Amino acid sequence: MLITLSVELGARSYPILIGSGLLAQRGVLDPRLRHRDVMVVTNETVAPIYLDPVKTLLAGSPVSTVILPDGEQHKTMATVNLVLDALVNARYGRDCVIVALGGGVVGDIAGFAAAIYQRGVDFIQVPTTLLAQVDSAVGGKTGVNHPGGKNLLGAFHQPICVLADTDTLRSLPDRELAAGLAEVVKYGLIADADFFAWLEDQAEVLLRRDPAALGHVIRRSCELKAEVVGEDEHERGRRALLNLGHTFGHAIELKAGYGEWLHGEAVAAGTCMAAEFSARVGTLDPTAVERIRQLFHRLQLPVSPPPVEPGQFLAAMGMDKKVVAGQIRLVLLDRIGSARITGDYAPHELADYLREQFVR
Ligand code: NAD
Ligand code: GLY
Fold first, then answer.
1. Are 43 and 32 in contact (CB under 8 A)?
2. How far is the CA of 359 from the centre of ligand 2 (A)?
3. What span, in angstroms and rounded, lies between the C-alpha atoms of 146 and 254?
4. Is 183 designated active site?
5. Ligand 1 and 102: CB distance under 6 A
């Protein structure tokens, strides 16, 4: 079954194609390629499994390939430069198309290279992790990490198409599948209480990779993300809600060392922290905090951060992109299904919470 959604951005609107067997569907990308030069960017883990099918899919176009090292620790300007060098060496012009084949790391690197090569070329996302299919491939946030902070370097640059073949999830390790579910829970928490309750019902079914349940999760997540991005592409307002748990989570990723905690794992623990802090400042009922922790626990995701010195954790949170005039703004929950971005809490509350968190 093919599901087609759309990210509505006027002349830059684009489709999200979701379905089983899409990589084998000859011609599915042809209307977007029209024999243009294509650079496939992938990594050493994904290439042996999916590069050949993708090359077959792109058979009408001249195709070059860049195979990056695998891992969050390689989401740096160095790998962006590998892509840029390949584009220059192939003498590709502004009419080329970059195809990002892989998870969120490949998508973020390839998308950023597409944003800056010759001041911007087209790119297509072919996400192969659950996390990328439900989140990172949609919405045009591209970029890389800096030793001083997660995703500090980047650009908004929308893909021209997202092609999510759900069959690729069959080869995904269990830990990576669970990490993707962390971002799925996020959508329920910020925007759809019924979806959250459905996830509570289906947690074990999802971990068993039931195709219908996974299909529903990808569709609902992309619907919600497409709606938010269509309304607030450049995160001037509502889009910031998609960062629930991420200010805490990015600090976990940075302090643990990029790649030690998976992004989704850090988001799960970070979301539990955001929920606890919401309850502490009085916006969220403590029973909701327990529901959230329970769901992440059942999804085999962490619900607490690793040990970090609280002052260092706070300093890492201070490099978040939502900081305004030195104030750390947080996405806090009012209830399951409703969140807001706010700096409306006493700064000592956060420092106190972190101190207590790390001496448990
Ligand atoms: P990832 O890209 O590192 O992929 C996870 C692992 O799975 C890697 O080892 C990868 O090689 C492997 N893999 C990928 N597809 C596979 C498949 N089908 N079968 C077997 N192995 C496969 O991690 P991720 O969770 O996909 O993405 C995390 C990244 O996404 C983080 O850097 C995060 O910051 C970023 N992100 C970006 C956005 C955005 O809006 N741009 C949103 C959320 C997350
Ligand atoms: N993952 C957060 C966003 O795309 O805005």
1. no
2. 31
3. 9
4. yes
5. yes
Bridge-based pairing state of the strands 141-146 and 149-156: antiparallel
For ligand 1, atom 1, the nearest C-alpha belongs to: 103
Q: Encode pLDDT of 320-342 as tens digits.
A: 888 888 889 999 999 999 999 99
55 is catalytic: no
**Token code pair at residue 129:** 């992790």
Q: Do 34 and 57 form a contact (C-beta atoms < 8 A)?
A: no
Between CA 225 and CA 222 the distance in angstroms is 5
For ligand 1, whether the C-beta of 172 sits within 6 Å is yes
Binding site membership of 165 for ligand 1 (Cβ less than 6 Å): no
Q: Among residues of the chain, what percentage have pLDDT more than 90?
A: 93
For helices 193-207 and 174-191, the axis angle rounded to 10 degrees is: 170
Q: How far is CA 346 from the centre of its chain?
A: 30
Binned at pLDDT 50, 70 and 90, residue 360 comes out as low
Whether 43 is catalytic is no
233 lines ligand 1 (CB under 6 A): no
Q: What is the pLDDT of residue 95?
A: 97
Is the pLDDT score of 359 beyond 80?
Answer: no
Closest atom of ligand 1 to 253 CA is: 34
Is residue 239 part of the annotated active site? The answer reads: yes
Partners of 335 in the beta sheet? 338
Give the DSSP per-residue string, 197-255: HHHHHHHHHHHTT-HHHHHHHHHHHHHHHHHHHHH-TT-SSGGGGGGTTHHHHHHHHHH
Task: Specify the amino acid at residue 45.
Answer: T
253 is catalytic: no
250 CB within 6 A, ligand 1: no
Tens of pLDDT, residue by residue over 35-73, are 899 999 999 999 999 999 999 999 989 999 999 999 999
Q: Which ligand number lies closest to the CA of residue 102?
A: 1
User: Tell me: the pLDDT tens digits for 167-214?
Assistant: 999 999 999 999 999 999 999 999 999 999 999 999 999 999 999 999
> Amino acid letter at 334?
D
Q: Which ligand has an atom closest to residue 103 CA? A: 1
Whole-model pTM above 0.90?
Answer: yes
